[in-house]
Amino acid sequence: xxxxxxxxxxxxxxxxxxxxxxxxxxxxxxxxxxxxxxxxxxxxxxxxxxxxxxxxxxxxxxxxxxxxxxxxxxxxxxxxxxxxxxxxxxxxxxxxxx
Amino acid sequence: xxxxxxxxxxxxxxxxxxxxxxxxxxxxxxxxxxxxxxxxxxxxxxxxxxxxxxxxxxxxxxxxxxxxxxxxxxxxxxxxxxxxxxxxxxxxxxxxxxxxxxxxxxxxxxxxxxxxxxxxxxxxxxxxxxxxxxxxxxxxxxxxxxxxxxxxxxxxxxxxxxxxxxxxxxxxxxxxxxxxxxxxxxxxxxxxxxxxxxxxxxxxxxxxxxxxxxxxxxxxxxxxxxxxxxxxxxxxxxxxxxxxxxxxxxxxxxxxxxxxxxxxxxxxxxxxxxxxxxxxxxxxxxxxxxxxxxxxxxxxxxxxxxxxxxxxxxxxxxxxxxxxxxxxxxxxxxxxxxxxxxxxxxxxxxxxxxxxxxxxxxxxxxxxxxxxxxxxxxxxxxxxxxxxxxxxx
Lengths: 98, 393
Hints:
- The structure holds two protein chains of two kinds.
- By secondary structure, chain A is of the alpha+beta class.
- Chain A has a single domain (2-93), classed as Roll (Ubiquitin-like (UB roll)), CATH 3.10.20.30.
- Chain A is built from three helices and five strands, in the order βαβαββαβ.
- In chain A, strands 2-1-5-3-4 form a five-stranded mixed sheet, covered by helices on one side.
- In chain A, strand 3 (60-64) and strand 4 (67-68) form a beta hairpin.
- The radius of gyration of chain A is 12 Å and the shape is globular.
- The N and C termini of chain A lie far apart (32 Å).
- The model of chain A has no long low-confidence stretch (mean pLDDT 92).
- Chain B has a domain at 36-50 and 57-79 and 92-201: 7 Propeller (Methylamine Dehydrogenase, Chain H).
- Chain B is built from no helices and 29 strands.
- In chain B, a hairpin with a 7-residue loop joins strand 19 and strand 20 (270-271).
- In chain B, 54% of the residues are buried.
- At the A-B interface, helix 1 and helix 2 of A face strand 6 of B.
């Protein structure tokens, strides 16, 4: 079970609380987590990554285990603590006002 | 007794203001989608409970919201109202606005002029304007930034570009205004389902006579001193166009400078700025019953973008332009420095005609007597981006 924490705006959009859980079949990567997130919550498609290019939207960051994973390959394995559900993957809005 | 419903988009949410036909006592609902920029909210003429809203964010992109009950509840088209969807592949992608690059379109464009004059690729940013069909509540048009027009025929679940507009061939000359390169105005012709007008900042006005397949620029008579050829066919910063639906083809335009009118469906324009204190502004609208009565809110520019002399004045012409009177009763006449944006004025169809507008300072003003007197419905909303009105039975 993968734990994901969304920014407030997207929690409202997806009708979820502060943290959600996803089942991932296969390797746990940014891509597989985001694929599962968008399949479970289709209203989030296009809000975290671009519809067509699947690139991370520029004002969003991915953090986990006190590390910035925003620029990691989408196919790189996420930290074991995220894969095991011990730590959440945080999707964070850039600190740019709002 | 009739009712009115005022749909207000602001920089931090949407608000719905309702009153009976007297338009004295108002109920305020909202914020809906708190914290999001709500560029536009508009109802279907054929099903007033069907509302469409453009919800947008620099962080999270574009969302389309729909209400089927007059704004009580909302959902993203393709997802169940008020609840998370069941697991499985998504049924729709209501916020997917992808420019047409298919071979079938024949002439998809790839670049437009950027601020510095270089060519720049088209990049979708947001929906500025939603225009529901005059005949089908499930059909709606979207004007977007970077400028293009999309349509949905399934209630906003899926969108397709009407690529003939960008394929017209002048795209490399289009350039962004201060607000971005936005298609902000869509006018449907109630007498001709194949005809519509759009306007782009800064490219100008265009018309289709074949349902959006092909488009022609309709800018003859516009003069803009800030472009290399002031009389060019393309490049004018048209801020807004208004038309009374009972007189299709007579159009009134607020341009970056100049208020204009056309009596031949946009083929030719003439200036009607007359005695306005400044002919810059954004909003323009037409009285619901008096076809030669039009309204503008002059704004001081180029650098300031607030009302001149600290006075909030709506100007009304009862002669289709040229002769204007200031309407000030109930509006602040000192120390007022607000702006009124292009989609932030609307009229109801009651008798007497109601006029509504919202300001960058968060006030929404209403006049129940065609502009003779004004009262604020609300004073302290976030900055107002758009105002639409529905007249309900």
